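re: ur question from yesterday

yeah so i grabbed the chain u mentioned. its 281 aa long if i counted rite. heres the sequnce exactly as i have it in my notes:
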Amino acid sequence: MAKRSRSSSSAVIEKRLKEGRGQGQGKAYNPWLHIQDVASQGLASRIKGWKTSRVHHLLSKLETEYFYVLEWSDIVSDIREQYPLLPLAETLAIAEQLNIPHPSDPHSKEPVVMTTDFLITSQRNFLNPIAQARTIKYAKDLQSPRTLEKLEIERHYWQKRDIDWGIVTEREIPKTVVENIKWLHPYFDAAGLLPLTQKDLARIESVLTPQVIEANSSLTNITALCDDQLGIEPGTSLSVVRYLLANRRWATNMNKPIRPSKKLEITVKSINIQEKAEGVG
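ran it thru and got these structure tokens back, copy pasting raw so excuse formatting
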């Protein structure tokens, strides 16, 4: 599929502003850049978020990994990716003040709107949500003088707004946690388990929970046995396990790889499971 024009002329900027790019919060937020707007090496992702219920546009593998970490965080309440540093005149002024060339379109040579990879809202309490800006870079890229120049413009922009800004590299992203969340992520929404009803989910949970806790057997063996016992489609119980973990109905050590071929160690946050199963109508 052909890419959209990458020109950052005033007409393109105006068009994106009219589309609501870089505006809104939560489900209403529209990132300044969509994956079809930029050159890709096949590592961009579109993922529906747990927290926002909208599709997120992630432009690199590292951005996607950090996104999964944010999705799992208890304190993060909103994730806005590809956030524009507007107005353009402000970053141009910062670049001039620092005597640094402003980023420009390689073809038109016109200045581009700079973006920060993530603007995060951390809800540490209900009264004082905190905004944090995070740029995602591979550690090796921080050896580039030009990259550091552009980061300095970004740092000054957020400093003027008294918003905490920082750089996250692959060294700060826990790979095992990311792989676990990636495995769970598609199963957060019960709608993905249709035609199962809430009553079905509660019944499967009530059968699975004691077996996963007590049996010294692999997760795949336990879930296959549950499928047989309840007469449901093979693989259904394993999908329910992913749903229970994604929704934290079950808790496990996310710093250890979740391997279905091994025993899964869990603690259960659901109480009176059997009563719940009988009470869901």
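noticed a couple things. The two ends are 47 Å apart (CA to CA). also Strands lie at 45-48, 55-58, 76-84, 115-122, 130-136, 164-168, 250-251, 267-268.
anyway ttyl
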